[in-house]
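Session log. Operator J.P. requested a structure for one protein chain; no other inputs attached. Running the standard single-chain path with token output.
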Amino acid sequence: MTRRGFLATSAAMLGLGGAASAAEERFEISRSEAEWRAMLSDLEYEVMREEATERAYTSPLNDEKRDGTFLCKGCDLPLYASETKFDSGTGWPSFYEALPDAIGTKSDRSFFMTRTECHCRRCGSHLGHIFDDGPPPTGKRHCINGVSLSFRPA
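Structure written below.
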């Protein structure tokens, strides 16, 4: 059973309900499970399509410091400008702000807590979560799985 299936079943049994999963929402770019699996590694699929989390400090993008743009690995939509990246010390690429109209959010009530999940607004790929402990000017920390991103230097 996938994490998404386990959580949906658990939430239903507990009467928690919640937002529709990315697989149930309609996105501008949609692919079958087979198409996603063919284009993504096993880890990328688990993170981007099943909302898993990569291990901290495993993404080379955590240390990426060049000027450029971070794109969705699922559809190449520009998501984050390098100017908004900061070292959060968490082990995942962190940004204080997404590009305009780049991400969607939903409530994530897994693990007996409520967080804000973020995903690519165009293809629905899971990116990570948004927390309220980031730097100025937004005070937000977009804690993003590096396997969900690709980087295009300026």
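Operator note: The CA atoms of residues 41 and 93 lie 19 Å apart.
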